[in-house]
Amino acid sequence: MDELNIINILPDSVANQIAAGEVVDRPASAVKELLENAMDAGATQIDLIVKDAGRTLLQVIDNGCGMSDSDARLCFERHATSKIHHADDLFSIHTMGFRGEALASIAAIAQVELRTHLIGNELGTVVNIEGSHVTSQHPEACPTGTSISVKNLFFNVPARRNFLKKDSVELSHIEEVFRRITLIHSDIAFTFTSNGRLLYDLKAGSMLQRISQLFGNHCKERLFNVEEETDLLKIKGFVGKPEYARKTRGEQYLFVNGRFIKHPALSAAVEKAYTDMLPEHSYPSYFIGLQVDPAKIDINIHPTKTEVKFVDEHAMFAILRSAVKKALGQFTLATELEFDKPAEFNIGPAPKGYIPPQPKISYNPDYNPFRPTSTQTRLNLQKEPNDLKALKNLMAPEDPKDPIAPKDLTPPSTTCLQLQSRYIVTPLSSGLAVIDQQRAHERVLFDKLTQSNSSTISHSQTLLFPVNCTFSPADAELLAELLPDLRPYGFAIETLSSTTFVVTATPVDFKESELQTFLNQMLADYKGSVMLRFSNRSQSLCASLARQMAIRPGTPLTQEEMQQLVADLFACPMADTSPSGKKTITIVKPEELLH
Ligand code: ADP
Ligand code: MG
Question: Dihedral, CA atoms, 254, 256, 259, 261, nearest 10 degrees?
């Protein structure tokens, strides 16, 4: 009976709106679909314009093939696509889109104006559509190619609209989508304008040029080329030199057939290649494009298509890892040539029958660690001479949980040994102290920086040649905000353009060649969790600064420098940890040596 039938077919507008939930969850996903369509249309110039992080307007203009009058209307229908015709086509996809869902979804939840002009046609056409209903269509003279304006996204889905984050957050999602697309399509020119400001103006060029346009010019010196071709896989891209590894996973980009993908196993393959080359908790940057036979990929497993499955995953893993390793192999070779390693690391096996002589240690028995020396300038310690009072203070409080009870520490011996140009070994009454020179120096510098007041400004040095530093637009904005905080530490930095700054002064003894690295690292620290360790902005800046200025592993130290550092370290109230919370001293007890 009629009244018992309760099933009805949803009208298209409702069905499209539901489908839209999967395809378009925020402005950035609409941007992704529109940019992909423009690329599929063969465009060589694509302009992205957003207002209010895409809330009010998202527009993509391309110089691609354009659409005919009837296609201009049809493209908003669900399952309307020119990219596949048969089920078999699914196994040989060479375009970014193929599901024919994006425009139907976007038109269901926004007011869309499409202007398109098919190459060869005399006139173009303008279609207006709102909540899946076409409101007008008329011919018009417009340039060949297509322009799609998406206005008031989610105007009819208040729940979705209310869930949007702050403009700055939505804009950073759009920026990330923009990077993921533009990075791997460096042959196409792109611009990105937000609220009338041109954020990116990317010219067509090589992938390396594109990387530096997006992430700053300094990238060029920091990357190694990776290239490999096998029957299964073609690899082309760049990997970061280990010394520029970052504390965050930010700059890790993997692409398959021109599409950004997330693939934990393949990412692990890249990181595996860096085994033993990176400091703890740091991640390499990489920008790697893979080409695989489309028949060997299943792109269809996720609607937004960042996840993919491969038929030969194991083989791909192995090829990728060894290609990256090979690229990094150049690194080992290059450093071997660059740095003067202490001779003992380069000696080959001893000839047969060779009896090594007794090792000798020479030291100056008259040396007084508490007398200021030239070392202080080199290590930038510039403290008042230490005295025993500081050490006594250190010994006073006792923390039973502390692995190194202060009472175990006695004034440093006059003899220090340097191990592997990285550790300082010195006897204490309680055992043998093994001190990490970098972490120790970080602690000393941090304490000095946080204790000093604005008079530190006198420790600034004006650079003979000002240094320009370039950043991504987002980082540049953050840096501009932090400039006043950097001033008291001796930095004089001015804005040159929206992404470039000029540094005219730095703290004394700051290596100007490391300025860009330092500023990048400081921004990353500031954005990342490192900041959470510290109670305020200036402490976080001091930690970054101390880390940057601290002596590096691999720096040979003189006897005097080691003694000064040890004395200064022991004068710090928290001598046994670095500002970032790492152990500075390990004590080997005599009992542990003799069983
Ligand atoms: P899909 O990209 O999966 O085919 P879309 O909904 O994104 O689905 O687009 C539907 C169709 O509209 C495309 O197949 C294409 O033929 C046409 N189209 C969309 N955008 C453009 C554009 N910028 N230039 C030319 N044609 C376009
Ligand atoms: Mg599409």
Answer: -50
Q: Using a 6 Å cutoff on CB, does residue 75 contact ligand 1?
A: yes
Burial readout 541-565 (b: 16 or more C-beta within 10 A, e: otherwise): bbbbbbbbbbbeeeeebebbbbbbb
**pLDDT above 90: residue 340:** no
**Contact status, residue 107 vs residue 129, Cβ threshold 8 Å:** yes
pLDDT at 501: 95
Collapse the DSSP code of 438 into the 3-class scheme (helix H, G, I; strand E, B; otherwise coil) and give the result: helix
Ligand 1 close to Cβ of residue 98 (< 6 A): yes
Instruction: Please answer whether residues 469 and 516 qualify as being in contact, where contact means their C-beta atoms are separated by less than 8 angstroms.
Output: yes
Nearest one of 498, 513, 522 to 465, comparing CA atoms? 513
Ligand 2 centre distance from Cα of residue 250 (Å): 27
The answer to whether the CB of 395 falls within 8 A of the CB of 528 is no
Q: Which atom of ligand 1 is nearest to the CA of 37?
A: 20
From the list 94, 98, 112, 128, the residue with the least C-alpha distance to 57 is 112
Q: Contact, 57 vs 50, CB < 8 A? A: yes
Mean pLDDT taken over the chain = 81
Ligand 1 pocket, residue 29 CB under 6 Å: no
Paired sense of beta strands 492-495 and 431-436, if any: unpaired
Widest Cα–Cα separation across the chain = 110
d(CA 247, CA 412): 34
- What is the pTM assigned to this prediction? 0.60
Q: CB within 8 A of 168, min separation 6: which ones?
A: 53
pLDDT digits (tens, 9 = 90+) for 226-244: 999 988 899 999 999 888 8
Rounded CA separation 475/473 (Å): 6
For ligand 1, the distance from its centroid to the CA atom of residue 91, given in whole angstroms, is 19
d(CA 148, CA 152): 13
User: Of 203, 72, 211, whose CA–CA distance to 145 is shortest?
Assistant: 72
